[in-house]
Amino acid sequence: MRTNQLIYLTGPSGVGETTCALAAVSAFNAKLHKLDDLCRGRTNKGRFCEEAVLRVEASNEQNGRLDIIDVGAGTQHDCNRDLSRFLQMRRSQSILIWASPAEVIQRNPLGPRRNPEEYLRTEYTSREHLYSIPSQCDH
Asked: What is the pLDDT of residues 48-102, one digit of tens each?
């Protein structure tokens, strides 16, 4: 029996979703797809690059391996509403990597000049709906 699995990882910048994805790639011989790369140049006024992701899903149905889509901060920011609708239909395949803002801000995501209030507003508050979709995994 062949088992196909595709999961979507989300989380605020600096929380560790890419680190978790890379560990899974190594442990399970999975393939990593970075959504920011898949969508580069394909977002239009907040419209999600659904066609690029559907191609990954179609490929996953044929390849019999674990595929991981790392939903990067750029796509989360640019396509929040469309991405939320898309992932809502894939809730069972979605995982949220989470840590409190106070913990993550200490990791200094995006450098020393980023304002902590802007970080909290952009990475947490504006994405509450998106982050409520997947199962939560504390990091």
From this structure: 788 888 989 998 887 878 999 999 888 888 888 889 999 999 999 999 999 998 8
**Angle formed at CA 54 by CA 58 and CA 139, multiple of 5 degrees:** 100
**pLDDT band per the 50, 70, 90 thresholds, residue 2:** very low
Strands 94-98 and 5-10: parallel
Q: pTM for this one?
A: 0.86
Rounded to an integer, what distance in angstroms lies between the CA atom of residue 28 and that of residue 20?
Answer: 12
CATH architecture of 5-138: 3-Layer(aba) Sandwich (3.40)
